Amino acid sequence: MSFVLTIRLLATILPAFATVLTLLRLYYRWSRRHLGWDDAWATFGVICEVFLCAGAWTRSDTPATGPFHHSLHARVIGYYMLNVAFTCVLWASRMSILFSIIRLIPHLMAMRTHACISAVLFGMMWSALLIQKLVVCETNPAWKNSAGVQCVLGHAVAALELATDFIGDFILVVMPMRLLWRIKLSFGKKLLLQGIFSASMFTTIISIIHAVYVLGPDRNAEGIWAHVEASTALIVCNLAVLLTWFMRAMGHSEDSETGPYTAGTTGRGKISTLRFNRPSNAPIVLTALEGDRVTQAHTRNSFESTDRDGTPKGQEFLDGRSGKTATITLGGEAV
User: Fold this and answer.
1) How far apart are CA 28 and CA 9, in angstroms?
2) From the CA atom positions of the chain, what is the Rg in Å?
3) CA–CA gap between residue 210 and residue 34 (Å, rounded)
4) Which residues, in sequence order, are CB contacts of 237 under 8 Å at separation 6+?
5) Which of 178, 180, 183, 175 has the alpha carbon at shortest distance from 304?
6) Of 96, 111, 122, residue with least CA distance to 177
7) Strands annotated E in the chain
8) How far apart are CA 64 and CA 306, in angstroms?
């Protein structure tokens, strides 16, 4: 099989599969009225996948192969499309996972601030990679006249890609594990959730393989693994939502809790609790009495958050220790 056929198949089949999974995710979230910023990032990732696919086809479309018989200038534009879109798919997928985690974290926890700082860090690393790639390719423009029309990114880009990939995926694995460690769940369910969030490490493994080819002379293999890495990242960012859908379809409940009290969900409109102990402030209990609406808010040794279906975004409460009124935004389903 020729390289042109291989790259076109990969650039079409893998993004198509990732796009279908994302559309299923969006349908599930829309049907439950749980669309959020994590879904917006996943949608942006799909848009970037379209440009990645189009760039691969354009770059590989030589006057001899067709089907459009693009000029050299058009193929250079195609390379920039896929190069920029590759980075955007990766980081949009990571942003989607991070914002899914943020939806889990109550506003009262310092971990939410850390997650928001991580989002800013992700944006900075994303921008740094794009700028570095553009600078490297424009500083050495000889590749624009080569038969393969592919920029040699070199050691500096490979090193930065590896470093940022490791940092990003490490955050996406450690942060939810810290959160889940404080939630009282059955061992099997906790193991499942940890496995879902740890799936980001698959992207890291593939990024290492991709970086090896970035450092080497095989430009074809570099292009192939770039498509594999981008599609894997988008698939991974949808796993948590789709597995939740599957578990619901199989009749599993979504209860989770920590602390000395017990509560759970058996269906729509029931109480669902997430309890986190706060070392310095009196925590808040939000109790759902009827349907999906929060009807009580008071202080206690832990706080509970209801299922988000139909629940107002924010609920005011009075901190029993400080006497100050604050607002807690129910993050709803994280997955």
Assistant:
1) 29
2) 23
3) 35
4) 41, 42, 45, 93, 94, 96, 97, 100
5) 183
6) 111
7) 284-290, 293-299, 314-318, 325-329
8) 62
| Cross-strand pairs, 325 | 318
Residue 116's pLDDT is: 93
Q: CA-CA distance, 332 to 76, in Å (whole number)?
A: 45
- Rounded (5°) CA angle 286-287-292: 110
CB atoms within 10 A of CB 275: 23
pTM: predicted TM-score of the whole model, two decimal places: 0.74
Centre a 10 Å sphere on the Cβ of residue 267 and count the other Cβ atoms it contains: 8
Neighbours of 60 (CB within 10 A): 24
Q: How many helices (H) and strands (E) does the chain have?
A: 8, 4
DSSP at 143:
G
pLDDT at 299: 39
Mean pLDDT per 10-residue interval, the chain, length 335 residues: 83 94 94 92 96 91 79 91 94 94 83 92 96 93 86 89 92 83 66 74 88 84 90 91 84 44 36 44 41 40 39 41 41 43
Question: Does residue 67 have a cis bond before it (omega within 30 degrees)?
Answer: yes
Give ∠ CA 198-212-225 in degrees, rounded to 5.
65
116 burial type by CB count under 10 A (0-12 exposed, 13-18 middle, 19+ buried): middle
Q: Which residues contact 203 (CB under 8 A, 6 or more apart)?
A: 90, 93, 165, 169, 229, 232, 233, 236
Number of neighbours of residue 255 by Cβ within 10 angstroms: 21
| Three state DSSP letters for 273-310 | CCCCCCCCCCCEEEEEEECCEEEEEEECCCCCCCCCCC
- Tell me the CB-side half-sphere exposure of residue 314, using CA atoms within 13 A: 8
Tally of CB atoms within 10 A around 136: 15
Two tokens, residue 131: 């700028």
- Find tokens 């789709």 and name the residue: 242
Task: List the Cα angle 66/47/96 in 5-degree steps.
Answer: 140
